[in-house]
Amino acid sequence: MPFQDAVMTGLAPDGGLLLPESIPDLGSRLDDWRGLGFAELAVELFEPFIGDLSREELERIVAKAFASFRHPDVAPLVQVGDLRVLELFHGPTLAFKDIAMQVLGGMFEHMLNARGGRLNILCATSGDTGSAAIAGARNRPNIGIFVLYPDGGTSELQARQMTTTRDSNVHCLAIRGTFDDCQRVVKSIFGDLEFKGRFELGAVNSVNWARLMAQIVYYFHTALKLDRPVAFSVPTGNFGDILAGYLARAMGAPIDRLILATNSNDILARFFATGVYALGPVHRTISPSMDIQVASNFERFLYYRLGSSEALETFMADFAADGSARIEDGRPMDESIVPAAVSEEETMATIGDVYARHGYVLDPHTAVGVAAARRHQPSGPVVCLATAHPAKFPDSVNAAAGQDVAHHPALDGLADLPERKTVLPPDVDAVKKFIATHA
Ligand SMILES: *Cc1c(COP(=O)(O)O)cnc(C)c1O
Fold this sequence. Notes:
Elements (H helix, E strand, L loop, with lengths): L2 H7 L20 H4 L4 H9 L8 H13 L9 E4 L2 E5 L9 H19 L3 E6 L3 H10 L5 E8 L5 H8 L6 E6 L3 H13 L1 H6 L2 E2 L6 H15 L6 E6 L4 H11 L4 E8 L4 H8 L1 E3 L19 H9 L2 H14 L1 E3 L10 E5 L2 H15 L5 H13 L5 E5 L7 H8 L7 H4 L9 E3 L3 H11 L1
Helix pairs in contact: 3-4, 3-10, 4-5, 5-6, 5-10, 6-7, 10-11, 13-14, 15-16, 15-17
The structure holds pyridoxal-5'-phosphate.
């Protein structure tokens, strides 16, 4: 499938996930790439996957995507005690999802300009994804976006990051229900192919290949700054971020290992420790973007680990039937991925300790990764991915630090801005009617 079609459809025609036909080995080019800026490196890394965009087009899309970041380095690396922290939160909504969403929004816009037509993005969010998707879609005349979120079910700040957007192509639908209700409604609407086609609906799921591809860049960019193979500690929910690290390693980035850090929703940490993938209850934690049991990108890793689509199908069928499946070939799961599950207490203590010792404020997701990195203490350099700015989670961060430290000017101003949202019942027809009149 050509790259542009893969980006537009998101999923394969049979409902499965798309992967590139082969993973390019770019190890021999590393020395040439050492001095490149983030956007220049992104073009080099994307090019092998893209046959149907010219280099000039790619350069334009990438430059525009990363120009929206507040830091000239896009993803700066800072030293915090023995650890290095990779700040991925300098994008428009202060979370790492901006990196992929800005690229994806730019790709959509380019393709729509070339092919004609319009795209109406429909998505459900429990928090960060919605605002990053809105930031990726706003200001693009041929794109509309409809975001469903549980009314009162996100933090006040997360809701305001969405509802204070002024653009008329952005529609925030506050659903009187839970996040699961929002997802059910979205799924059902995507299942109505006639409606989907008529209103040109599209998705920005974390399984979209362009999102993964965009995330490979910061692994290379960081590894190239250091003179020895590096370990990355990755706060993990849907397995997208860490899968990008796994692919970067396969493409030749000098990565020693990946520390898979989960909160108490530890299904993936248990899998990498035991080979058993078994559903547990969902716990609500102070790192809500990782409160996930079934990780949508994990199937992609399993495909590589199991070696064939047939073996993957059997594994997933077992899991669907029993809520549990097991890898039984006697080989280790993957020695490059080291699991660690971090409790709420340890997360809070890590925020408090790092602030007291180094004056550096971690957000709760980042703190999960830092706690996991401290536990493992690998011999070489360790980089902890900072996936959100602490000001996005002020209650837990301030409580853990013991002081009012969680601020960012872009968020402090939100309380005074007018909100724009439509409250709807958790009802498929009500949402369809809204889309039909606003798409
Ligand atoms: C989405 C998110 C994560 C988890 O990333 P995955 O790709 O789902 O593993 C971690 N931290 C923050 C702040 C996020 O928004």
